[in-house]
Amino acid sequence: MTYEIVIGLEVHTQLLTKSKMFCSCSADYASAPPNTHVCPICLGMPGVLPVINEKAIEYTVMTALALNCTIPEYTKFDRKNYFYPDLMKGYQISQYDAPIGKGGWLTIDSNGPRKRINITRVHLEEDVAKLWHRGDYSLIDVNRSGVPLMEIVSEPEISSPEEARDYLVKLHNILRYLGVSTGNMEEGSFRCDANISIRPSGSKEFLPKVEVKNMNSFKAVYQALEYEARRQMKVLEGGGELVQETRGWVEEQGITVLQRTKEYADDYRYFPEPDLPPLVLDRAWIEEIRARLPELPEARRDRFMTQYGLPLYDANILTGSKAMADYFENCVKLMGSTKAKTVSNWLLGDFSRLLNATNTDIENAKISPKQLAEMLSLVDNGTISGPVAKAVLEEMFRTGKEASEIITEKKLSQISDADEIREVVKQVMANNAGAIADYASGKQQALTFIIGQVMKATRGRANPGVVREIIIQELGGK
Questions:
Q1: Confidence (pTM)
Q2: Which residues, other chains included, contact 262 with Cβ-Cβ below 8 Å and sequence gap of 6+?
């Protein structure tokens, strides 16, 4: 029997607000000593009253609009009751039946044609504290408790681990473009729980779903879902029965393990939060936020293709990061749109190689767009050759120096003087009689070899066109 995979994703992302969701404590907890960004409200003390963070509402509305959601005028907060050591009050202030955004969608391109994945809801809640497990005891850090946490829930319309990964990458990119979250998965500011089930191909019936947790990278999501789909198929093929449960991904072993039987909504005993009034979102305010939305990744990708004539591959990668897309456009503005493909080639080639090798984000690179544009202009006007430019780029990347400064210091200017090049050509030909004989016998690749030797002897500084012309002259003009 063949099976279909059915996946729905619940993404939690911390919002980049200065203060927490319901109190004035700093939300910047990552580098703070444990339990220093706390107050009676986020400690869950009796008798305290929460106050709604307006910026968190604004960021959630902004995200919902970017995801094509409907924003209802009326929204409210609810109490989600459950007991766990990291939940200070014994309940979480969340949203249940009246979220800020609902009925949205985004598109993915996993298998060619664009596929729309519908989004059920975008809602706002508070994060929980963090537990630190130390052998037979645990410690708790309350700094994270109360940080604004936005949840984005997809419909169960994702059909493979590949689609799930692409959905998350697309969503992550949108959030970074909006500037509402760092999206840092390693620090927990972008977290994903996946609901996955299988069913016989062609069936419309949903079998019990499994919620998979503890995935902290796009790769982990892909691997966990791939494993879980295989595990569920093996259970059914062995005559077993699937049950609704929560499982944790153990990356070191490449398996999921049972954590608990899955709760249902009724288990949380939701009811309206009595300490917070319902919110009525002004339509004019919503439209003002809509007008401030930046150009989003998909629209920017399509524009790069039409405005700059870039192929889909280039446009996809360049717009995969707002910082990379901004860097590219700043370079192109300085060089002109006719040089867009040249800029793209360097950014996606040698520049990206250096970024990856040093684990550097492009916004932290020592080379500014202006410096890169000036270096590429030196290649265009013949001051340096392509091979020399690569060496110059590496030095610029390491030191932050201007290209012209490096060229002067290391005497890397291109040699175009015919007499100087001819002397090098004669020396190379004298040392490579075999290649000359091969050329004379009709082996054209020998010419390429001789040109390469001349370029090597001049450390890539010789003008390749002049080199070729002189070599052919010295070989008898053939």
A1: 0.85
A2: 209, 210, 211, 244, 245, 246
List beta partners, residue 226.
Answer: none
Q: Over the stretch 247-264, which tens digit does the pLDDT of each residue have?
A: 999 999 999 999 987 666
Specify the number of domains making up the chain: 3
Token code pair at residue 320:
């995969």
* 278 and 139 part of one domain: yes
What is residue 468's predicted lDDT score, i.e. its pLDDT?
A: 84
Average pLDDT of the segment spanning 312-331: 96
Encoding tokens for residue 321? 């990061």
Instruction: Give the Cα separation of 166 and 161 in Å (integer).
Output: 9
- Residue 471, burial from CB neighbour count under 10 angstroms (0-12, 13-18, 19+): buried
User: What letter represents residue 143's amino acid?
Assistant: N
CATH code, 456: 1.10.10.410
What does the buried/exposed string (b/e) look like for 348-384 if buried means 16 or more CB atoms within 10 Å of the residue's CB?
Answer: beebeebbeeeeeebeebebebebbbbbbebbeeebb
**Are residues 129 and 269 located together in one domain of the fold?**
yes
Statement to judge: residues 42 and 150 lie in one domain = yes
Whether residue 327 is found in the same domain as residue 361: yes
The pLDDT score that the predictor gives to residue 204 is 86
Tokens 């996606």 appear where?
348
